[in-house]
Every structure is written in C-alpha cells, then in structure tokens.
Write a structure and sequence with these properties.
By secondary structure, the chain is mainly alpha-helical. It is built from 10 helices and no strands. The N terminus is likely disordered.
Length: about 220
C-alpha cells in the first residue's frame, strides 16, 4: 500500500507538471516530506529487507520519488526565482539523488542579488559537506574560513542555530566535545543525543537532512 501511494504521487507529479497551472513549490514540499520519511526509515541505516519492501522495490521507489522531486524543484525555481529557500532545497534534492558532483557547480549559478548572506552561508556549507561526502577529503581550511565569516547577526531570527558547534566539530573532528556542546545547548531535546552514531559521515548526512533549523533551513 505504501509503495502504491508513492508511485501514484510520482505519476501525478509527472503528469500534472504544467508550470502555468500548478504550484510546483507546494508539490515539491509534499514530495520532500515523503522523501524525508524514506530517509528516516531506510537511508539512514541502510536498507536490506523489511516487511514492506525488498531491496529492489525500495531502490525503485527511491528513484521514483527522487526523479519526481527533481522535476518539481526545477519547476518551482522557474516559477519563483526569488524564493531563497528553494536554492537550499535544490541542493538537498541533488544530495538525495546522489548527484553530489552537481552541487558545487549549482552554487556557482546562485545570484547573490537574490540570496541573503545567511542563506548563502548555508549554501556554501552544504556545498562543502557534499564535497567531503563525494571525495572523502575533509576541507578543513574551507570550514575554518566559513567559521570566520559566520556571525549570528547574519539572521537574528535563527540565532539558536548550531553553526559554530558544527563547524568546530568539522574542523577538530572531536565528537565527544561536539556532543557535550550540543547537549549543553539543547538539554531538553531528546534527539540531540547523537543516536545516529559516531561515524563522521553519518553525522554529516544527518545534519544535512534535518529540517528543524538546527543547521539548515
């Protein structure tokens, strides 16, 4: 049943993508929520088999949703080039579709007249994270430069973001210190217990996927 729902969503998105008659931004948002549910259920831990999917079925479903998301985000950007957050979602869509090598070239196309400093900072950080995932190399000096450029004043509305803590972790690679700082800053939040493991790449992917303004959005 779950598979059918996703497949129907995919077909509907393809068929209905008439840019002059639909709200692609809204449709992308709905697809992103569904794609996030796949991440939480499977991508994060790696799928082998389960009660709902075989590996083959899951792989096919994942591709269907990713393809549909790609169409919707491009459509949404064409409809509204002034929506800053869409640029970040474009990067997330490329990440989810395993197109990490396309993220940095996309960043170079971003119009600085459109995106404010806060969003551009996020885009730059996201691009560096994709670069690390793609190459396996830690761009420490580039992380240091970003940390130097960061200021909570970039967007006072989101001054509770953990940019400094996360960048310091990326630079020092000290998980224990990172955990202490995060738990001290967010003592009430149960999901700050780092339950996603102690693997650097897993932590990076987790931070890239979160949608709660902790690092991105």
């Amino acid at each position: 049943m779950f598979k059918k729902i996703f497949f129907i969503s995919f077909l509907f998105s393809i068929i209905s993508c008439k840019k002059d008659t639909i709200n692609c931004d809204e449709k992308f948002g709905n697809l992103y929520i569904k794609r996030y549910s796949l991440w939480v259920a499977f991508d994060r831990i790696g799928v082998t088999s389960n009660d709902n999917f075989s590996r083959e079925q899951y792989t096919k479903l994942r591709k269907q949703v990713n393809d549909s998301m790609s169409i919707m985000i491009d459509c949404a950007l064409e409809q509204n080039k002034n929506s800053e957050i869409l640029y970040l979602y474009k990067m997330k869509q490329l990440f989810l579709a395993d197109k990490l090598n396309e993220v940095e070239p996309f960043l170079k196309t971003v119009d600085r007249k459109i995106v404010k400093d806060d969003i551009y900072f996020q885009l730059s950080l996201y691009s560096l994270l994709c670069k690390e995932l793609l190459t396996g190399h830690k761009p420490v000096e580039e992380y240091k430069n970003l940390l130097k450029s960061y200021s909570p004043k970039l967007n006072p509305v989101y001054n509770e973001r953990a940019h400094e803590e996360f960048l310091n972790y990326l630079i020092d690679d000290n998980l224990e210190e990172f955990e202490k700082k995060m738990l001290k800053r967010y003592p009430i939040s149960s999901d700050m217990s780092m339950e996603y493991g102690d693997n650097r790449l897993s932590i990076i992917k987790e931070m890239m996927m979160r949608g709660d303004n902790l690092i991105f959005d």
